[in-house]
């Protein structure tokens, strides 16, 4: 009996030890308000923008450091950071940073915060501090001229890096040709029309907006099937 109890204690201690060694931090996905508040309250926060250097150069959250999630040296770069201190990550809409956050947990970081909705949500909520007044892409006035039509107008905002945008692209192009006599369908790259995206407070991709006589009648953010779009047309 004594031997049995000793064995059970050994097994329990061993399993507890293994669980402690293998446990990962829980990634906290925060909305803009809570992310900003947590960031402000943290002394010398480790703030990481995991987008490409090109995206980072065009806009960023103040004091962020760029470590590209899709780069070949992501792990090597983050290993230089302090794993015992809070780390904050963000990307464009939250997809890449969510993957990066999971990797950070796997690498042993203890306190990880991911910006839900990414910098698009951050900008749309008014948190962005414009680095320049320079117009990037189409102006709001030109956009208004674009949607003023006697036809129904469909605007599709997307981006090259956006997986659901890529999935929708073939059928959007097909509908452009198929319905050209009845519906005006226009595809706009969100990154190439940043001023317009910020002006319209677009906070996610892809986006489909339908206009009639220059007035918005319907909008969808996120993946939309061809069948569901056809129902609106």
UniProtKB/TrEMBL annotation:
<dbReference type="InterPro" id="IPR036249">
    <property type="entry name" value="Thioredoxin-like_sf"/>
</dbReference>
<dbReference type="InterPro" id="IPR050229">
    <property type="entry name" value="GlpE_sulfurtransferase"/>
</dbReference>
<dbReference type="InterPro" id="IPR001763">
    <property type="entry name" value="Rhodanese-like_dom"/>
</dbReference>
<feature type="domain" description="Thioredoxin">
    <location>
        <begin position="98"/>
        <end position="233"/>
    </location>
</feature>
<dbReference type="Pfam" id="PF00581">
    <property type="entry name" value="Rhodanese"/>
</dbReference>
<dbReference type="InterPro" id="IPR013766">
    <property type="entry name" value="Thioredoxin_domain"/>
</dbReference>
<dbReference type="Pfam" id="PF00085">
    <property type="entry name" value="Thioredoxin"/>
</dbReference>
<feature type="domain" description="Rhodanese">
    <location>
        <begin position="41"/>
        <end position="131"/>
    </location>
</feature>
<dbReference type="InterPro" id="IPR036873">
    <property type="entry name" value="Rhodanese-like_dom_sf"/>
</dbReference>
<protein>
    <submittedName>
        <fullName>Thioredoxin fold domain-containing protein</fullName>
    </submittedName>
</protein>
């Amino acid at each position: 009996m004594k031997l049995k109890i000793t064995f059970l204690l050994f097994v329990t201690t061993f399993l507890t030890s293994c669980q402690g060694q293998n446990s990962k931090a829980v990634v906290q996905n925060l909305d803009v308000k809570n992310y900003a508040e947590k960031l402000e309250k943290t002394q010398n926060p480790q703030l990481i923008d995991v987008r490409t250097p090109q995206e980072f150069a065009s806009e960023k959250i103040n004091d962020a450091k760029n470590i590209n999630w899709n780069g070949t040296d992501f792990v090597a770069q983050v290993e230089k950071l302090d794993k015992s201190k809070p780390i904050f990550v963000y990307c464009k809409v939250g997809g890449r940073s969510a993957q990066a956050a999971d990797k950070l947990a796997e690498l042993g970081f203890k306190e990880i915060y991911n910006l839900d909705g990414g910098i698009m949500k951050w900008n749309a909520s008014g948190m962005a501090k414009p680095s320049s007044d320079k117009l990037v892409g189409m102006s709001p006035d030109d956009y208004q001229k674009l949607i003023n039509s006697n036809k129904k107008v469909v605007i599709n905002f997307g981006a090259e890096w956006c997986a659901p945008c890529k999935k929708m692209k073939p059928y959007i192009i097909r509908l452009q040709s198929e319905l050209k006599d009845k519906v005006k369908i226009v595809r706009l790259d969100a990154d190439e029309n940043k001023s317009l995206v910020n002006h319209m407070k677009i906070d996610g991709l892809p986006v489909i907006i339908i206009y009639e006589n220059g007035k918005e009648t319907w909008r969808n953010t996120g993946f939309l099937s061809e069948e569901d779009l056809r129902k609106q047309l």
